[in-house]
Amino acid sequence: MKHIWLAILLSLPSVAYSSCPTWLDTNIDKLHSSEIVQLCSSVQNKPMLIVNTASHCGYTKQFKGLEAIHQKYKDQGLVVVGFPSNSFNQEADNEAATADVCYRNFGVSFLMSKPITIKGRNAHPIFQHLNAKQGEPQWNFNKYLVDAKGNVIKRYDSWIKPTSATLTKDIEAVL
Question: Containing H/E element for 30?
Answer without folding.
Answer: none
